[in-house]
Specification:
pyruvate-formate lyase- activating enzyme; nine-stranded mixed β-sheet; alpha/beta; globular; about 450 residues; Arc Repressor Mutant, subunit A; 16 helices; binds iron/sulfur cluster; four-stranded antiparallel β-sheet; binds S-adenosylmethionine
Length: about 450
Amino acid sequence: MSSRALPAAWRTHAERTLPRYTSYPTAVAFKTAAGEAEARAWLGATRADQTISAYVHVPFCKRLCWYCGCHTSVFHEYDRVQAFFQTLMLEVDLWADAIGPHAGAAHLHFGGGSPNALAPDDFLVLVRHMADRFALRPGAEVAAELDPGMLTEAFIDACGEAGVTRVSLGVQTFDPEVQAKVNRIQPFDMVAAANDRLRKTGVSAINFDLMYGLPGQTPENVAATTSAAVGLRPDRVAVFGYAHVPWMKKHQVMIKEGELADGDGRWAQAEAADSILRAAGYLRIGLDHYALPGDLLALAAASGTLRRNFQGYTDDPAPVLVPVGPSSIGRFAAGFVQNAAATDVWSRAVEAGRLPVARSLRVSAEDELRAAVIERLMCDLTVDVGAECLSRGFEPTALDDAVAAAAALQVDGLCRVEGRTVTIPAEAFRLMRVVAACFDAGLLAAERRHARAV
Ligand SMILES: C[S@@+](CC[C@H](N)C(=O)[O-])C[C@H]1O[C@@H](n2cnc3c(N)ncnc32)[C@H](O)[C@@H]1O
Ligand code: SF4
C-alpha cells in the first residue's frame, strides 16, 4: 500500500484557504435583514410535484471538543434542551403550514451539535411530528449525526422506533493521546458497542466521521484509526481535514498550534486514511467521502446523480430544503435562507409565530450556472462548462474567463482542459476546491475567512 507525498508544485495550492462549496454562493454571501415575507413567498413557489427535505439543527452537546467547528454549546441541565425541543415542534408547524402542497419529504436530516442531546422520547416525538407534518414518503431517508460519547441504549432504541435509516457516528480518532489533546475521550469499545446495537435495532446504514490534521496525529496513528474503523464495516466514512479557524471558533485556541502538522504532514495523514479505505473496498466519493459499493452514495456517484449540499455529499435530489432549528440553512427555488443562529433570537421568532429567518440570498441565473459547474466538479471531477452554459440559456463562452483560470492550473497537474471540459485527475482530487474556485465570482472577498484547502 503506497502513499504519495504532497508534490512540491501543489504546496502553495494546498495552503490556500477556500470554501468547502457545500453551496454556491457560499453562506458568507447571505445578506442580513431577510424578510420573513420573502421566505414565505419563496416557499409558496414549491410545486405540488416536488419532493422536499428538511434539516434540523440541534445546537447542544454534552462536551466541547476543542477542534469543533460546528454551531453548538454545552448544556448542563436538560431543561434548556427541553425548552428548545418544544420550540422545534412549533417551528415544524410554522414551516409545514407555510409550504403548501408538495410531493412529501424524501429526506429528514438531524445534525448539530448532537441530536442525541435530546431525550430519547423527545427525539421520537420530534421525528414522528416531522414525518406527519412533512408527509414523509415511504422509503425516505431519516438520518441523524450522533455523538457516541453520550449515546445511550435508550436513544439507540428510539432511533429504531423512529425509523431512522442512517446514523453518522463522530469517531474522529481512536488514538487516546490525540483524544486527550482535543478533549474527546471516546474508547474504541464505546463506538463498537454503539455500532452493534444500532445495527441490531434496524438502522440499516452507518457512517463514521474521521479526521486528520488534529494535534498529535501522524500518518501512523491515522492509519491505525482507519484500520480499526473499517474493521467495524461502516457503510460510509467521511475523512475531514481539521479546519483550524480560532479567529471564528474561540475554543480552538485550546489547541496548541505547534502540535499541528504542516501541509506535508496533513497530506501524508490524509493519504494514509485513503489507502487503507480503498484497500478495504471503499470507493472514494468527491472530496472527502468513501462508501461501500452498494451504498446509496456510491450508486449516486456511479450514475452521475451525486449532489453536494450543506450536509456534504448526498444522493438526495429534493429541490427544496426546509431549515429547522437555529442557524439552519434552507434552499428554495429562488434562493437560500438561513435561520437566526442565536437560540434566543430563533426561539423568540418561533414563539411569536414568525419563521425564524435572519438572512437570505436570492440566486441569479449566473449564480445557478456557476453553482452547477462547481457542484459537478466537486461530485464528478469533470464538467463540460460549455454544455452547462448552453443548458441554462447562456452563450457557451459565458464562463470562458473561469475556464482560462482553470487552464492555468494545468501546468501544475491540478486539472486538464479540453475545449471547455475541465477534468480533475484522480490523484489531484484533494485539491478540487482550487479548481472549483476558478468558477467562484465572489471568492476574493471571502478567501480570508476560510480554512486551508488540504
Ligand atoms: C455535528 S459533528 C458529528 C456529531 C457529533 N456532534 C459528534 O461529534 O460525534 C460533525 C462532524 O464535523 C467534523 N468536524 C467538526 N469540527 C471540525 C473542524 N474544525 N474541522 C473539520 N471537521 C470538523 C467532525 O468529524 C464531526 O464528526
Ligand atoms: S464535534 Fe460533535 S460532540 Fe464535539 S463539540 Fe462538535 S458537535 Fe459537539
